[in-house]
Amino acid sequence: QPTECFLSQPEEKQESTVKAKRRKKKKISDILEKSAPKPGVPADLQNLLSQHFGENRSVIEIEELKLSDSCFLPANDLTHSFSSYLKEICPKWAKLRKNHKEKKSVVMLVICSSALRSLELIKSVTAFKGDCRVLKLFAKHIKIKEQMNMLEKGVFHIGIGTPGRVKALVEQDGLCLNSTKYMILDWNWRDQKLRRMMDIPEV
């Protein structure tokens, strides 16, 4: 009897360690922690769009949604700061900024995963923006009607915000994208759970 008890204990321990290992594998943060950040490439977004729309769109509709490689500018190779990257991809910013007179629109739209990250990017864009107005496009502490009023009354050049609020503004005709020349996706930044914006299903 004592030997049977002794034998049964390590077996239980083995089972519990196997279960613990299995649980760990399921966490997305563990997988992401091991993967090194890589600059985004056009194929990343193209594949994501075809996966997302593939289930409920026809072949012709999917073809129309396809973005050609010529739509994309070089991605940040992760050596640039946000300002220096924008200077590289948009060398004629001063001219674009002066010519922009339309209300309810922005020349450059930056989309990132959270309000805190938006504020971070607004602070780091100072060396690039020059004499232009930047608008916060996120839901934290700012009502959508306030943002719509601001867009209607004034001229803004850069909009930095979250996918949910940008989508809501577009749907409610608060933001028009006709004069938007650049759309920047904050592709590689990760939150506390090590998720990128594209790893969040709602996005």
UniProtKB/TrEMBL annotation:
<dbReference type="InterPro" id="IPR032704">
    <property type="entry name" value="Cms1"/>
</dbReference>
<feature type="region of interest" description="Disordered">
    <location>
        <begin position="1"/>
        <end position="22"/>
    </location>
</feature>
<protein>
    <submittedName>
        <fullName>Protein CMSS1</fullName>
    </submittedName>
</protein>
<dbReference type="GO" id="GO:0030686">
    <property type="term" value="C:90S preribosome"/>
</dbReference>
<dbReference type="InterPro" id="IPR027417">
    <property type="entry name" value="P-loop_NTPase"/>
</dbReference>
<dbReference type="GO" id="GO:0005634">
    <property type="term" value="C:nucleus"/>
</dbReference>
<dbReference type="Pfam" id="PF14617">
    <property type="entry name" value="CMS1"/>
</dbReference>
